[in-house]
Amino acid sequence: MRAIQVKEYVKGPDGLRVVDLPDPTPQPDQYLIGIHASATNFFDLLQIRGKYQHQPPLPWVSGSEFSGVILKIPSKPKSGGKPKYQVGDKVFGASQGGYATK
Length: 102
Fold this sequence. Notes:
The chain is mainly β and 102 residues long.
């Protein structure tokens, strides 16, 4: 996948670089989402500078808000039943790693 990975804190978006990373492998209770769009918020700008109160350990893929399509559903959902969303469903959300795509 191609992603904006933060290996060290930068002064601003101009310091970010796109890198090639292995495709993610979701855990049995996780979805895999193909990102189609991602937003940039003040939170993201603080985080890439290392100035947000909660920082993931380096390196990490930035971007929190995203929209996309479900590529893979959980094989063992946390609810124990059928997954709420199915492959091909359009979704949006917020989670670390929104600046990534296949």
